User: Which sequence fits this backbone?
């Protein structure tokens, strides 16, 4: 998978709408990936001579009943992870993370420019063209339309990311907060750094990246902690893949069903 060049080709073309450095990086990785991929699929003839030693193996047992591991006995197939979080866990995590992010963003507005409305007006400019026309002095004042749009946009994106956390964290049982609270926000911030000029030119010209990354990390840590504190539920086969976030794997035969009965 490390040699597969498909992702690097995407990175190569992503530079057409971001920057030339992204395309150069993508081209270099495509070249390395193709070389590694081609070398991996080329046949390599290797032979090893092993002496054949006859061995008489006889398997015996005194048991009269075959023991079965009691894992997911009510399912004919197992879905990994065996347990996942309900949708409500992702919603709660997204709401809690949005509050943590909003607190840091508003703190930045108060400490840096002396206005709590400054970051709110900048956020509204992502989808609201009227916010782009605000004069520098008007960015420090309250606007009902900008506040409403920023509130809805922030809440919607936070809940969607919270749902993503609820789906992903069960697949990373070891140190999930490191992934959700540190690695993911840093990668997300790096992606936004290349495309923010297209999404929100006003925010790109006024953004403080230290505070921005800090707010993203705060969201990830708080959302991850809230999701992890929720009660897990068994993963069901009839739940969609997006909510289940599992990988289909062969399950175990429930106790009491023999091979003849299953046929």
Assistant:
């Amino acid at each position: 998978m490390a040699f597969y060049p498909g992702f690097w080709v995407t990175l190569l073309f992503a530079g057409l709408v971001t920057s030339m450095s992204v395309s150069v990086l993508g081209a270099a990785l495509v070249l390395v990936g193709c070389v590694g991929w081609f070398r991996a699929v080329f046949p390599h003839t290797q032979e090893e001579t092993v002496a054949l030693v006859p061995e008489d193996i006889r398997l015996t047992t005194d048991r009269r009943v075959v023991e079965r591991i009691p894992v997911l006995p009510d399912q004919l197939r197992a879905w990994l992870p065996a347990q996942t979080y309900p949708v409500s866990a992702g919603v709660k995590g997204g709401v809690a993370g949005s509050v943590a992010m909003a607190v840091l963003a508003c703190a930045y507005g108060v400490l840096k420019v002396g206005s709590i409305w400054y970051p709110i007006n900048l956020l509204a400019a992502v989808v609201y063209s009227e916010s782009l026309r605000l004069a520098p002095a008007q960015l420090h004042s309250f606007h009902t339309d900008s506040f409403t749009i920023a509130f809805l946009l922030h809440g919607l994106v936070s809940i969607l990311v919270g749902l993503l956390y609820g789906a992903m964290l069960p697949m990373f049982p070891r140190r999930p907060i490191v992934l959700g609270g540190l690695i993911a926000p840093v990668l997300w911030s790096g992606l936004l750094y290349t495309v923010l000029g297209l999404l929100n030119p006003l925010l790109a010209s006024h953004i403080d990246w230290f505070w921005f990354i800090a707010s993203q990390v705060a969201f990830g840590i708080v959302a991850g902690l809230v999701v992890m504190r929720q009660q897990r539920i068994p993963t069901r086969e009839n739940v969609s893949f997006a909510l289940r976030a599992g990988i289909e794997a062969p399950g175990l035969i429930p106790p009491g069903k023999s091979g003849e009965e299953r046929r």
User: Anything to note?
Assistant: DSSP finds eleven helices and four strands in the chain. The longest strand covers residues 78-80. The beta strands are 78-80, 83-84, 233-234, 247-249. The chain has a mean pLDDT of 75.
